[in-house]
Structure formats: C-alpha cells, structure tokens
Design goal:
The complex is a heterodimer.
Chain A (H helix, E strand, L loop, with lengths): L1 E2 L32 H4 L16 E7 L5 E7 L1 H4 L4 E6 H6 L4 E3 L5 E3 L5 E2 L5 E7 L2 H10 L1 E6 L6 H4 L18 E8 L1 H9 L3 E12 L8 E7 L4 E6 L4 H11 L7 E4 L15 H13 L3 E4 L2 H7 L3 E12 L5 E13 L11 E4 L11 E10 L15 H19 L3 H8 L8 E2 L5 E2 L4 H12 L1 H13 L3 E10 L11 E2 L2 E2 L2 E7 L5 E5 L8 H13 L6 E4 L17 H28 L6 E4 L2 E4 L2 E7 H10 L10 E6 L8 E10 L6 E11 L6 H20 L4 E2 L5 E2 L18 E4 L17 H17 L14 H10 L13
Chain B lengths: L2 E4 L9 E7 L2 E7 L5 H8 L18 E4 L2 E4 L12 E3 L12 H8 L9 H14 L5 H7 L11 H16 L5
Parallel strand pairs in B: 1-3, 2-6
Antiparallel strand pairs in B: 2-3, 4-5, 4-6
Helix pairs in contact in B: 2-5
The chains are: A alpha+beta, B alpha/beta.
C-alpha cells in the first residue's frame, strides 16, 4: 500500500512527557474494533434478537398487484386460526388516524391500504399471533377482493396522455408529477452554449437499486399500558428522528417514547425512513397491550422499503475545442414510485444532485428536475449517498468521458484541464456550493502513476491489434458530506446538527454518548479515538454509547457520511469543554494561575517547570473530590455542533477491464483508489469503508438492479433475482491516500463512508466503454450485463434508457 | 454431555421430538415438522448468533456446521437435524480461547456491521478444515455462498489467510 499522507496539523508535536497518541489509540491509530468482541462470538444484539416476556409476533400481508382498487377485505378466516390475537386492516388503522403517515419529503404514504394498492408489495393488513408461523398462516387466510387498475411503470407512462392517476387520494393532484425543481443560471448557461465550439450530449438511466443490508427491517414495540411508556427496538439509522416522527404520527407524548436502535445489521440509507411496518407494530402493541415483534422478510424489504436512484439524465456540455468546459446543463427525471418518500433536506427536491461538477472549474450551469409517481415501491433514499449525490457524480463522470471522447482528447488530460486548482479554495461551484479544500491534481496523478496509465495505453493499443478489448476508466469527484449547516439543511423542519455528551468519571475513565447511530462504521472504536486525541485518555478507557434515545443526546443519526463530520466534530468540541474545565482544576491542584498552565496530550504542566504537572485523570478525580471553592462539581458536558459547511472529500478511482467480445462478459483487471478524506481517525476503518463502497459500486455497474415488468411485478424481489456480488466476483482493490485536512472541521476530518460507492460506478462503466470505443458506442446503461455489452459491441449501438422490462 | 429440554408453545399442529447435539451439548425439543433449523437454534435454543437474512439460501448469514459441513440453516428443517451435530458461532472457539478464524476477522478488520459474520466465519472454518493452506482464489470460491454488504470481502479473505497461517505456522504474520 502506498502511503502518501502528509503529517496533519491536528497532531501535537511530541514533547518530553506527552503521551504517544497512536499508542494510546488516538488519531491515526488503526486500533482493532471494540465492537468485534461481541460480533465474532455471536453476541451482538440485533432487533431480531430482542425477546420480551409475553411477546407476540406480527406479519404483514402485502399486495400482489401493482395498482388495484380494494373492493373488500375479509379477515374472518384469519381470526379463526388458533393463536391469532389481532388482524389489523387499514380501516381499523384509520379509526386511529393511522392509515396514512407523512414521508420525509412532505408527502403522505399509506400505512395500510384503505382505498387502493399503489405498488406490488404494499402493506394491506397485518396479523399478530403467538408465533410468526401462525401469523404467516393467518395472512394467507385473509381474502382481499381487488379490482385491477392499469399500472404505470415508467416516468414516460406517468405523463402520457390518459395515464391513470395514481395519487387520487391527494386533493389537488391532477397528474402523476411529484415535484419540479430547478437550480442554476439558465440565461448565463444558454449564452455559454451559444458560443461553444463543441456541444457534447449524453442520455442515460441510473437504474433503481436497493441498499439491501443483509439484516432486513424490524421492530419490537412495547407499549406499557400502566405507565403509558412506549419502548421500540428498531432497525434505525436515526432513532431520534424516529422518536419525533412517532410523536407526531401516533400523537404520543415524546417524553414517553423511547427508541432503541441496538446493533444494526447494515443500513446504507435503507434504515433512515419510518416504514409502515414500524407504525403497525406500535399500533398492534397499543391494541394488544403486549410487546409485538415484527421482522420483515427479505422480499418485504426488497419490495417495499426505500430504494435508491432510478433517475434519468438528459445532458449537454458546452466546450471549447481545446477542452475547456464553458457550461453544463441537464434535466433529471426521477421515478419516485407510489409515494414521494426521499429522505432528504427540505429545500432540495432532488437531494443534492446539484453538487455535480463541484470538482471542476465550470463557470455556469443549469439543472431542471422532475419527479414522477409510478406504481412502484416508494423511496428514493440516499443509498450509501448524501441525498442523490451518487447520481450527480455518476452523471458528471459519464458526461466527462463522453465529452473527452467527443473532443478527441485523452480522458486524463481533459480532467486535468478542468479540475479546480489547489489555490482556488474555497471554491464556489456553479450551483452554489462552497467546496472547502483539496489537492485534486495530485490525487489524479497518484492514481495515474499507480495504474501505470501511459503503459496501459500502449498495452491497450497492442491488445486491440489482436482483437482483445482492454479499457481504462477514470472517475474523479468531490462530494458534499456532513449535512448541515442548519441554515440550509433540515429534515421535516429539524435542523441537521449533531451532538455528543461526555462524562469523565472520578478515576479518569469516560463514557461518550453520541447522537449518531452506527450500522457497522465502528463508532464505538473511532469516536473514542477523537476523545483520546483531545484529552489523552487512552481509548481503552472510553466507552461510546449510541442508539438509545433515553440515554443519548438528540442527534440526526448516521447517513450521508455525516457522523464524523458532524457528531465527530461535536465529540471534539465536548472534549474541549472538558479540557477547559480540567485546566481550571489543574491550576487549582498545581497552585498556579490558569494562565500559567500548559497542555500536552494527557497532562497539564506549569509553564517553565514542565516536570510539575497533573494528568487528566488527576484532574478528573479532583472534579469530584477536590474542586476549588465555588466550582461546580463533576466533569461532564455536552456539545451540539452545527457545522459551518459540508466537508468535501475528493476521490480518484481508476479501473482497467477486459471485455470478452464473444460473450460480453467483462473482468476487472485492476482497480486503483486514491481517497482524500482529510485526517484519518482510524486508517484501518477508513480503508474498510472505501473497500465496502467500491464493492457496492462494482455491484451497481455489473449486476445489482431492480426493474419491473409491464404489469408492475418487481423483478429483483429476492436475492435469487436481485444479484449481489460474492467474494468470487468482487475484484481486489489497491488503495492510496492523500490528506488535505478540512479547514473547518475541529480535527480536520471529512466524511468518507460513501465516497467509493458514489464515485466508483463511473470508473467501471467508463472503463468498459473505453474498451468498446473503437465500436463507436457512447453509452450502456448500468448494470453492464453481458447481453447489453455484447449487443453494443456487435451493433455499435448505445444501450440507453430505461432497463428493458419484460413485455410478454 | 447434558441434555436440555426445550419447552415449545402449545399449538394445534402436531409436533415431533428431535434431539440435536448443538455445540457439543445434546438438546431435545418438540418441534413442528415445518420449523426451520435456524428458528430452532434462535428461538428454541436461544442461540441468536445465527442470523437470518434472505430466506432463499443466498446470503449465508444463517450458515452453521452440520456434522462439520457448512449448511444454510434457513433452508433446513429442524427435524432433518435429528440425531446430528450442529455447530453455531457460539460453539466456535472457547470462552477463554478464540478460534483462529475469529482472531483473524478482528486482526484484519474482516467485519463491520457483524450481521454476516457468524455465517462467514463458519464457512471459513469449514473451508480451513478441508483445506488448511488455501490460496486467495480458494478462499474467494469457498466463501462464495455468503454475502457481505459492508466489507468488500478483501479483508475477509485476508482474515482467513491470517487464520490459515496461524494454524499452519503458529505465526499469522509469517
């Protein structure tokens, strides 16, 4: 592994008695994970592992049809099965005003269908029984009389004349348009296009994909009718938001709601929203006065919970003949499914798609966007992504390659001519973002050197003479990670800050409680390292707690790579508050004035007499046993951090591939990743995040997608149809790093968890298209399935637009 | 070996008595014939380290060892395990000493959310039992029945290589 890191400013210079930060588990330490001890022994505590006395089990009956009116629901046979305790329909939920609920995008979503079903897999009824097997039997015994309606399965159909109205439940909704939005400077962009030498055009579809964590969604709802307290164990990336949402949706007092998100078996954005199953489990617990467990099956997860992507691009780039970008404009169309349920900040209707082209010096641009209702599962969650940033960067990098090809310019050179220079920061992007820092050219060069770019081009030319199709694809991008600030970012009105609470006990051991929620990111390991960096308390002496709303400060949760940028910053800030108080205690213990006390990692000492000092642990004991007169006892505090800006990591991903012209199968020869995510708290964990993201990127480019047939049947509703790569298919990755500390983050860190999933897909796709370049093919939509590649290679035609659905 | 009786819920559906040796301990239970082995282990025996992901035999989170061979316990009936030996993640290693596979997963950061980990480790254990000196390709093929969404597999492969090295040479860094 090549290490090109530079020493970061955040580390203190070692002095005589300062602790060795890496040795005690501070910044830069690849300490093994605290979480692993329980997971490797099978001692994790996931929602499905929660068992409460007297607990009942809930199963959901889902719609087999994509669009149909419900004539009647007969539940009598279900009630007759021994062991059945409750059969809940939408009509019964409506009596509690719970048949519908708000989405995270100010739309409404059916909890249990009352009037129509609007997608295959929609929740129609649920059964509570002694045992999940009985509950499933009883679901099968429910008879629903449906009147089939014509389904709408593409945005094109949604706006076609005479299209059936999907959302006839919404007053004033006369069409299937969910939203319209635009950003940028239309007139300026038009003017730039008028003077362009070359206009490069590209149309493509980023297919619907499902985050598909291996753990499906689930809940154990426990309403205590004696105390009125509702406790819900939930697969949630954002338990505090859920608490607020439950208070609003179910009209329960928020102080009597406790959401516990225990160990979560992967999230990737799928576990941000509030789903009908959660609401049903809560309602069923209230109605039965018993704890109710609901564990979704895999088909339920894949067919009803938040998908990602499903966005169409129609783009143009204005260029000079020598390769300068004058302007970009594009129209994005999203297929929202039956309910507009994107998890995204309020003011941005298509997430942060306008963060595209942030790494290039583009003077002006204009984006228009429109979302359509269709008879498909709702969602549009940020799948390992900051609110549609994945589509933004994929579009950008596909447009960059098409433009380079149209200009006849080398793809690396074209990027070099347009990347923002190091001295341009902070840089205002054409769509209003302010990028914070970076060394883009350096990252690109490291990537090109690592892959052996020039040599590969020679090898490629030689191979072509022999009929072998080699290709190289580059993807360079910066993306906005760590929402808010609170001025611009909120979800349902709640501002996107985050929080940390630190309690240092008398013996100098500490408990950190954070508003973020880990789903595998290793916060219990890395957030302790931030405290270690600030206070010199060994990481082993710090416990990190999260995920229980009764015992952690309010936070917006973990998604969009925001934990380290926001909750991590709050952690540094609360540790600094603790250190400030400890300094007063140190002055008291050392009998000097506070101004004469100096800090080095783990201890205060008297200026000019370094041997006279007290450790942070001695200060902690003094806070409880020997505080100066008038000082409030204790060494505990909290911090709420409202970031001044997003953090802007940069990545350069380069893939080389070989396409088999006989079969259309393509193999990854090498993959080089250069990530600059600022200061790395735990390099081992950062690299783990990058490799995980590169695998999801590979999956999306190669096999992983969901589509629907003409009747609205989901193709990809289980892992037999929805292909995920195993160890066998997944390529190896070569990782490199550059460190440009974020200038506004307390420890210089930037988000990283999603970079590779965001920037990775274009590298693979660009590589395959580069291999096919002699054929004139400009686009193949993901996933690059062998039949699509074979077709393109043999006909020279693009494979663009919606993925073909079965018409028979 | 001790024998543990498991109480099951009183239902109208006929049950059948099964006796399974789980992690070296003989356990008996009256089960519905349709009960999946994964559910016997999780709900009947309280061994929640065996996870259920997909119901379609694809993800491998429910992998256990059945007479030493890896099987997906969500696709096997509990009655099929009658008279057989089953090893779950709780039976990997001992309270005082981890299995080298477990150590390898920690040392090489072979897990993130931990959900696929028990099945992945048991598949790896079975692989090393039949091939103590696997190549990287052997490992990738040997684990291709198990899905991981977090790690990207590279560190899982390294974890298994680590365990193989330790078992062969006593020194995983050799």
């Amino acid at each position: 592994m090549t290490q090109t890191a530079e020493p970061h400013a955040a580390s203190p210079a070692p002095t005589s008695q300062a602790l060795d930060e890496v040795k005690i588990g501070g910044l830069g330490s690849s300490r093994t994970r605290v979480e692993d001890a329980r997971f490797i022994r099978g001692r994790g505590n996931y929602v499905e592992d929660v068992t409460l006395p007297g607990m009942l089990h809930m199963e959901i009956l889902r719609s087999p049809l994509a669009h149909a009116r419900i004539r009647s629901i007969d539940t009598s046979a279900a009630w007759a099965i021994p062991g059945v305790k409750l059969v809940l329909t939408g009509e019964m939920a409506a009596q509690r005003n719970l048949a519908w609920m708000p989405t995270l995008s100010y739309d409404t979503q059916a909890v249990l269908a009352t009037d129509k079903v609007r997608f295959q897999g929609q929740e129609v009824a649920c059964v509570v029984a002694d045992d999940p097997y009985i509950a499933k039997d009883a679901c099968d015994a429910i008879v629903v009389d449906y009147e089939p309606l014509p389904p709408v399965v593409s945005p094109e159909q949604a706006v076609a004349p005479g299209a059936p109205l999907i959302r006839d439940d919404k007053a004033g909704q006369a069409d299937n348009i969910a939203y319209q939005w635009e950003v940028g400077d239309k007139d300026g962009t038009d003017a730039a296009f008028a003077r362009a030498d070359v206009v490069s055009k590209l149309r493509l579809h980023y297919p619907r994909s499902h985050p598909s964590p291996i753990e499906n969604c689930g809940a154990v709802a426990d309403f205590n009718s004696a105390t009125g307290k509702l406790t819900v164990y939930l697969t949630s990336q954002a338990p505090h938001i859920v608490r607020a949402a439950v208070a609003l949706i179910a009209e329960l007092p928020e102080h009597l709601i406790r959401i516990i998100s225990p160990d979560v078996g992967g999230g990737f954005g799928n576990k941000v929203p509030v789903y009908p199953g959660y609401v049903c489990a809560i309602l069923c617990s209230i109605l039965t006065a018993k704890p109710v467990k609901w564990i979704e099956d895999n088909t339920g997860n894949l067919s009803s919970t938040g998908f990602g992507r499903d966005m169409y691009l129609d783009s143009e780039m204005a260029l000079t003949s020598d390769g300068q970008i004058l302007a970009v404009r594009y129209h994005a169309t999203t297929d929202q499914g039956a309910f507009y349920a994107d998890a995204q900040p309020t003011k941005f209707k298509i997430g942060l798609v306008h963060s595209s082209f942030a790494c290039y010096d583009v003077p002006v641009g204009h984006i228009t966007a429109q979302g359509m209702y269709t008879n498909k599962a709702p969602g549009g969650v940020a799948y390992r992504c900051s609110f549609r940033v994945t589509e933004a960067m994929f579009f950008q990098e596909r447009m960059m390659q098409a433009a380079a090809d149209d200009l006849g310019l080398d793809q690396a050179e074209f990027r070099r001519r347009n990347l923002v220079d190091d001295d341009q920061f902070p840089y205002r992007t054409p769509f209003g973002f302010l990028t914070d820092s970076g060394q883009y050219h350096k990252c690109l060069q490291i990537g090109l050197d690592a892959i052996g770019y020039d040599d590969f081009l020679v090898e490629q030319a030689e191979a072509r003479k022999k009929g072998r199709l080699l290709g190289i694809g580059i993807s360079t991008m910066t993306e906005p990670l760590g929402a808010g600030n609170s001025r611009e970012y909120d979800i349902l009105g709640i501002k996107m800050f985050d929080s940390a609470e630190l309690r240092v006990h008398p013996t100098g051991k500490a408990v950190l409680k954070i508003g973020a929620q880990t789903q595998g990111q290793g916060h219990e390991t890395t957030f302790a390292q931030i405290v270690t960096h600030e206070l010199g308390i060994p990481a082993l002496d710090i416990v990190v707690e999260h995920g229980d709303t009764d015992h952690t400060p309010f936070g917006m949760g973990t998604y969009a790579s925001r934990s380290t940028p926001v909750a991590g910053a709050a952690t540094a800030m609360v540790a600094r508050k603790i250190r400030a108080k400890a300094r007063k205690l140190a002055a008291h213990l050392l009998e000097v004035s506070e101004e004469d006390v100096e800090w080095e990692l783990g201890r205060f000492y008297v200026r000019g007499a370094e041997s006279r000092g007290v450790t942070i642990q001695e200060c902690a004991m003094a806070a409880y046993s020997n505080m100066p007169d008038g000082m409030e006892p204790g060494l505990e505090n909290n911090a709420y951090y409202d970031p001044p800006n997003l953090t802007w990591p940069f990545a350069c991903y380069i893939a080389t591939v070989e396409v088999d012209p006989e079969t259309g199968v393509w193999d990854v020869l090498r993959f080089v990743a250069v990530d600059d995510c600022g200061v790395r708290i735990n390099p081992m964990i950062v690299e783990g995040q990058i490799m995980g993201g590169l695998t999801e990127a590979y999956a999306m480019s190669n096999m992983q997608f969901q589509t629907y047939d003409v009747d609205g049947n989901l193709v990809g509703a289980n892992y037999m149809d929805y292909l995920l790569p195993t160890a066998w298919e997944t390529p190896g990755f070569e990782l490199h790093e550059v460190v440009t500390p974020s200038p506004h983050h307390p420890i210089g860190a930037k988000g990283v968890g999603e970079c590779a999933a965001v920037g990775g897909p274009a590298a693979y796709v660009n590589a395959v298209l580069n291999a096919l370049r002699p054929t004139g093919v400009r686009n193949i939509d993901m996933p690059l399935l062998p039949d699509r590649v074979w077709h393109a290679a043999h006909t020279g035609d693009d494979v663009s637009g919606a993925p073909p659905f079965r018409t028979e | 070996m001790t024998s543990t009786e498991i109480e099951t819920k009183d239902t109208a559906i006929p049950t059948r008595r099964v006796t399974v040796t789980v992690n070296g301990e003989k356990r008996a239970a009256d089960v519905e014939p349709r009960l999946l082995l994964a559910h016997l282990l999780r709900q009947g025996l309280g061994l929640t380290g065996t996870h259920v992901g997909c119901d379609t035999t694809n993800c491998g989170a429910c992998t256990v060892l059945y007479d030493g061979a890896p099987v997906k316990s969500c696709t096997m009936l509990a009655v099929q395990a009658d008279g057989h030996e089953v090893t779950t993640v709780e039976g990997l290693g001992t309270p005082s000493e981890l299995d080298p596979v477990q150590e390898g997963f920690v040392a090489e950061h072979g897990l993130q959310c931990g959900f696929c980990t028990p099945g992945m480790m048991l598949a790896a254990r079975a692989l090393l039992d039949r091939n103590p000196d696997p190549t990287e390709d052997d490992i990738r093929w040997g684990l291709s029945g198990n899905l991981c969404r977090c790690t990207g597999y590279q560190n899982i492969v390294k974890a298994v290589l680590w365990a193989a090295d330790k078992e062969r040479t006593g020194d995983p860094d050799s």
